[in-house]
Amino acid sequence: MQKGRSSANGAGVRGKKGLSRSFFLALCLTAAAATAQPQSSENTLNRRDATAWLNKIHRAAQRENYVGTLIYQRGSVMHASRIQHYSDLTNNEYERLETLDGKPREVLRQNDVVHSLIPEAKLVVVEKQEAKDRFPALLATNKGDVLDLYDMRKLAAERVAGVECEVFALEPHDTARYAVRLWADRNSGLLMRAQTLGEGGKVLEQVAFSQVDIGVPSDKQRILSAIKGAGSWNRYEVTYQPANIADEGWTIHTPLKGFQKIREVRRPLGELRAPAQGNKPGAVFEVLQIVYSDGLTGLSVFIEPVSEQRARREGVASLGATQVVVRRVNDFWVTVVGEVPAATVKQFAAGVEYRPPKVH
Question: Structure pTM?
Fold first, then answer.
């Protein structure tokens, strides 16, 4: 599931490998270590009940106050993070995410403004970023469109991190997307665990709370103070410009049902580092990003000009549920990244065409 993409590695860090459903951009958030347990009782929910539960899960991630430890597992890679999330009466959100292994990293969020702290460089990366695709939120589930593409079944209840959970399976109508399993707190609806399943029910990726406290008092002031405290650090602001790929000669044929284009932007691409002497910015590349979603999962298409400074080559890669295809189209590199089956990513990559726009 495109969960837990964060921004310290995002917006261009190390060539912006863009691996994660924002969809990539990610300090490692999360994860779970339990494997799927056989379920005894199950039944398909009607559309009204299924929509109600998806909306409840989605709202809980935004409205509840919670503090906990997240474990994120993708393939053989596992990371742990500490998360604090608070919401006020006017639905403002405040969030702090700290990595617990590897190099120290911290992500501070106030609504859609994200500050990613890289302590060893005294660098803070600031960008606007939607949080709907980061665990424990669900991507675009405030609409029932996802139920045109998946059947939602209720499975036997289980406990996760000491919390009594309702368990749901979302099974796709076709092979263009993965099946998903969700564990939600019976009372608040907060998502406790999410799994992405491949063929034969194999767990490709999972995110879960290993410990959580729900309904805690707000400590948003500490997050605001931490944002202020990084004000003296070197600052890199990631800006996104609206784009129209058709005007630039690009066409993306998307024959797969359910994937809708939700965003087209031009964004910086390059290695983030402290400003050089004289505050002159280093070379910055730009990339077109086109984001698609089926309401539950998604993928991104990146288009960047061929450059001697950025060695690339055509090929495919896979890590857990994330699939990547790179191909050259004219004098551009096209990279498709998504937490969908390999065939889906390949179809999107094959559907990208370029015709130089006419000069008027």
Answer: 0.82
Helical residues (DSSP H) of the chain, grouped into ranges: 47-63, 220-229, 342-350
Whole-number Cα distances in Å, 317 to 19, 20, 327, 328: 11, 13, 12, 15
Cα separation, 139 vs 152, in Å, equals 16
CB 266 within 8 A of CB 240: yes
* The pLDDT of residue 211 is above 50: yes
Give CA–CA dist 170/177, Å, rounded.
11
Domains by residue range for the chain, with CATH: 13-230 (2.50.20.10), 239-354 (3.30.200.100)
**pLDDT 10s digits, 222-237:** 999 999 999 899 998 8
The CA distance from 291 to 300, in Å, is 4
Q: Is 237 exposed, middle or buried (0-12, 13-18, 19+ CB in 10 A)?
A: exposed
